[in-house]
Design a protein that fits this description.
Helix 16 packs across helix 17 and helix 16 (596-619) packs antiparallel against helix 18 (666-695). 42% of the residues lie in helices and 16% in strands. The chain is of the alpha+beta class and 901 residues long. It is elongated, with a radius of gyration of 48 Å. The termini are far apart. The strands form eleven sheets. An eight-stranded mixed beta sheet has the order 6-5-7-8-9-13-16-17. The protein has a four-stranded antiparallel beta sheet with strand order 1-2-3-4, with no helix packed on it. Among the domains are: 2-153, Butyryl-CoA Dehydrogenase, subunit A, domain 3 (Up-down Bundle); 463-571 and 797-840, Periplasmic binding protein-like II (D-Maltodextrin-Binding Protein, domain 2, 3-Layer(aba) Sandwich), CATH 3.40.190; 573-584 and 697-795, Periplasmic binding protein-like II (D-Maltodextrin-Binding Protein, domain 2); 589-628 and 636-694, Helix Hairpins (Orthogonal Bundle), CATH 1.10.287; 855-901. The protein is built from 27 helices and 34 strands.
């Protein structure tokens, strides 16, 4: 039974493992990123898996895309594919093998109960079902199995100390080194892949916790090893330079570190973009004079407490003796500097001497080489060493009595000064001050950084003074333009514009020099289907340029490969289109103040009021009167509000002319008063709008927004190829913008233009709308009265100064831009370059005279009314004449009849 249970459990666990491995292989959720940017409309989440990338925005379904090429994938992803597929296959084979050999018996009692339940020979009273105890037993067994697996798979605690410990019986040895958490804290602060370079294979063992970091943190670590048979590391450095590995950790001795630094300098890698971290504790003692003005970022640890007067005195005596000693081979260290190993040896000898003085009663017997007899006072002497405490060259020395290891010591975290080296000689003490202390690592509390990368007491211009930066830009009015001059111009004098003024202001604040160069391919920077960049972004990635000062939009995809300063200008995407032709008011423009619906409602209201007045006047007794006042007893009464008179009353009130009819009853007066109030509001509103419709020239545009563009295909529209506007529509998940990108991508040869100049020319000459930045539209419309901006802003974004990733200039440029913004200089520069002559205003008189084209319609209405009245009069005459003729004929006939009879 036990064997059956173990077999079923093994199969279940194997099945779960198979399902889990298959699910893990297929799901795209290996990496997940979420962002909300200034330039993004909605939040977007991105998953990256072994087979595909998936995107999902808020309230929008997930969209996935399978990788196009297997060979283009990173090596780690290809390896993961193969390993996961092999894992699924082997798990399936193992599960099938287990199923073929298992006995399929899990529980004897359960088997008996189930067998008896389905036994037809047993009566119902003898049949049983599975009880709760069996379920509890099965669950308990599962917990016990899980507990056993946890005990089997548990990992022994790793070494927590900060020592390379070698302690055989009765031997104490300690060697302080940086703790793994120190390196982890330093590495996790970088913004790119880290390269770990070790001197030998043992370095991988020392830094194993750092190597495991990618499995727990979102960082990438590449492991390399220095050549073992040669000191020439330039081939390795060349590969690192080609691979853009800017964050490097060197785990090697100080002698090797000195050689590597020289070769780094010869390879041109001693720049501000590289960050070198050395694990040797003797880095502070190296001669770094050749790297004074390189600007390289170099960090290390220091155990020697050079700030202590006691240490300064010992180091000074050491230096004097070393300088008097015969010269030795070149080691790369400064002359007379004490190494950490020598300082540790000094402290160890001092502790042994102090313990020997305390142990005066301990005697030392003679030793025999062929006999291994322990010293009977050895244990006592070791305890005295453990009890000893002393402030040595390497700090306070306290020995842990339990394991005999040193505890509670500090390591200074030091960084090379940005402004180069400083050597100070205080009295007779010669100390190396090439490093700046930026933090302390304690064996108990861990890492504590006391300073940021920027020293608050140092002016931000220190690291940029006397430096010449390469600035890439692109020709774009009014940001960068060729300067018009009769004389030939060279260098930076060839250009002018907003960006040149901005660059000049930044140079004045930060104190650097610059050289302006146009981007080689004439593009801003976009990513193709293979993930490669072009334009100014590419030049920053390749470190061809230090800054990109241009109308370069800050976007999410660009932020992944380069850094941006704070925006110096905010804007959005809008539509550039030619101004629509104006239309003069028509002859019937006097009807325009009210819409056709309102005119119809007013007419119906007039007829409705007339009918109501007619009916109410018939009902009320006060509207009936005696037509013969002289005969008060006459039964004949009349009513003035006939249907025709009621209509005439309503029309007269609407035309504000009144009539001879006056309501007498209270009910009819209420109707008349309400109608007069209605006509007052209608006539006032009509009069207020009439002047505008008679004098203003109407501008009819076929499009008013991006939605109008998306709904039609007659007007062609597009953007600059490989620009941020094109990328916005290409990456957008909003249905309207997706539809617009589908239209543009289907007509790439005609819809997309090379630059803004080509697009503006197409807008002027053809029926074309250009999607571009609102600031450029504002500049263009100020100088070309035939162009205008249609609609509002589609998005919101900003222009920023681009720098390579990890550039030390980004934060300094940001501070300078904020300073210019607070001083109002950014606004003044925009007013300088955006303000144009303006479009000429049309000639206007003090009182605009109305012509026939404005009010000619009322003459037509008058003439039509006169003609209509003439025809009506003729009709009335004919009608009355015929009626009189009929009466006369009747009268003549009656006379003849009387005469005859």
């Amino acid at each position: 039974m036990l064997q059956g249970i173990s077999e079923i459990a093994a199969v279940c666990v194997g099945l779960i493992g198979l399902i889990g491995a298959a699910t893990t292989t297929g799901l795209p959720m290996w990496k997940v990123t979420a962002f909300i940017g200034e330039n993004i409309i909605v939040m977007e989440t991105r998953w990256e898996g072994l087979w595909m990338n998936c995107y999902r925005q808020a309230n929008i379904r997930m969209q996935c895309k399978v990788y196009d090429s297997l060979l283009f994938l990173p090596p780690e992803l290809q390896a993961a594919r193969g390993l996961m597929c092999c894992s699924v296959a082997l798990s399936g084979l193992g599960l099938l093998a287990a199923l073929g050999g298992m006995r399929c018996i899990s529980c004897f009692q359960g088997h008996v109960i189930i067998t008896d339940f389905y036994n037809p020979l047993l009566i119902d009273a003898q049949r049983r079902e599975l009880g709760e105890a069996l379920y509890i037993g099965w669950v308990t067994g599962a917990f016990l199995f899980a507990s056993a697996m946890l005990f089997l798979c548990r990992r022994l605690p790793s070494d927590k100390g900060s020592f390379d410990v070698y302690h055989p019986a009765n031997l104490l040895s300690y060697k302080p080194r940086p703790n793994k958490s120190t390196l982890m804290s330093a590495v996790l602060q970088v913004e790119g892949p880290v390269c770990l370079v070790s001197e030998d294979a043992t370095g991988l063992i020392r830094l194993q916790e750092l190597i495991k970091a990618p499995s727990r943190y979102s960082i990438k670590i590449k492991i390399r090893q220095l050549p073992t048979g040669s000191k020439d590391a330039r081939p390795l450095l060349k590969e690192m330079k080609k691979g853009k590995e800017f964050y490097v950790i060197f785990d090697c001795s100080y002698q090797t570190s000195a050689d590597v630094l020289k070769q780094i300098l010869s390879m041109g890698m001693m720049t501000e973009y590289y960050h070198f971290f050395f694990t040797t504790l003797d880095l502070f003692a190296l001669d770094l004079e050749p790297y004074r003005y390189s600007g390289v970022n170099m960090t290390g640890f220091r155990l020697l407490n050079i700030d202590s007067p006691q240490v300064a005195s010992v180091v000074e005596r050491w230096a004097m003796e070393r300088l008097q000693a015969p010269s030795k081979a070149e080691t790369g260290m400064m002359e007379g500097m004490m190494t950490t190993e020598a300082a540790l040896m000094y402290d160890a000898v001092y502790m042994v001497a102090a313990a020997s003085q305390r142990a005066s009663q301990i005697t030392v017997s003679s030793l025999q080489c062929h006999r291994h007899k322990p010293w009977r006072f050895g244990s006592r002497f070791m305890n005295m060493l453990k009890d000893a405490q002393w402030n040595g060259l390497t700090g306070q020395i306290i020995i842990n009595k339990t394991d005999g290891l040193r505890k509670e010591f500090d390591l200074d975290v030091i960084s090379l000064k940005e402004d180069g080296l400083e050597k100070t000689i205080a009295g007779n003490n010669r100390l190396n001050k090439v490093w700046k202390k930026i933090g302390v690592w304690n064996s108990q509390t861990g890492l504590n950084l006391t300073e940021n990368n920027k020293d608050s007491s140092t002016n931000v211009t220190d690291s940029m003074a006397n430096r010449t930066l390469i600035v890439t830009t692109i020709l774009e009015n009014p940001y960068v333009m060729y300067k018009k001059s009769d004389k030939p111009l060279y260098g930076n004098d060839r250009f002018e514009g907003y960006c040149l003024d901005l660059l000049k202001e930044l140079s004045n604040i930060l104190g650097f020099s610059y050289e302006v160069k146009l981007v080689s391919d004439g593009k801003y920077g976009a990513q193709n289907d293979k993930g490669e960049w072009n334009g100014m972004v590419r030049e920053l990635i390749d470190h061809v340029a230090d800054l990109a000062v241009a109308p370069l939009t800050i976007t999410y995809v660009r932020e992944k490969v380069i850094d941006f300063s704070k925006p110096f200008m905010t804007l959005g995407i809008s539509i550039l289109y030619h101004k629509p032709n104006g239309t003069n008011p028509g002859v019937f423009s006097f009807l325009n103040p009210l819409s056709p619906d309102i005119w119809m409602y007013v007419l119906l209201a007039c007829l409705g009021v007339s009918c109501v007045l007619f009916v109410i006047a018939r009902f009320t007794p006060y509207e009936w009167y005696n037509p013969h006042p002289c005969n008060p007893d006459s039964d004949v009464v009349e009513n003035n509000f006939t249907l025709i008179n009621s209509v005439w009353f309503g029309v007269g009130a609407l035309m504000q002319q009144g009539s001879e009819l006056m309501p007498k009853a209270l009910s009819t007066r209420i109707v008349g008063g309400i109608w007069w109030f209605f006509t007052l509001i209608i006539i006032s509103s009509y009069t207020a709008n009439l002047a505008a419709f008679l004098t203003v020239e109407r501008m009819d545009s076929p499009i008013d927004s991006a939605d109008d563009l998306a709904k039609q295909t007659k007007i062609e529209y597009g953007a600059v190829r490989d620009g941020s506007t094109m990328t916005f529509f290409k990456k957008s998940k909003i249905s309207t913008y997706e539809k617009m990108w589908a239209f543009m991508s289907s007509r790439k040869n005609t819809a997309l233009v090379k630059n803004n100049r080509e697009g503006i020319q197409r807008v002027l000459t053809t029926d074309y709308a250009l999607l571009m930045e609102s600031t450029s539209i504002e500049y263009i419309s100020q100088r070309n009265c035939n162009l205008t901006q249609i609609g509002g802003l589609i998005d919101s974004k900003g222009y920023g100064v681009g720098t390579p990733i990890g550039s030390p200039y980004r934060d300094k440029v940001t501070i300078a831009i904020l300073q210019l913004q607070e001083e109002g200089k950014l606004h003044m520069m925009k007013e300088k370059w955006w303000r144009g002559n303006g479009c000429p205003e049309e000639d206007s008189k003090e009182a605009s005279a109305l012509g026939v084209e404005n009010i000619g319609g009322i003459f037509i209405v008058l003439a039509a009314g006169l003609v209509l009245s003439v025809f009506v009069a003729i009709g009335e005459f004919i009608y009355k004449s015929r009626k009189n003729l009929d009466i006369e004929e009747v009268s003549v006939g009656q006379c003849e009849w009387h005469n005859k009879y």
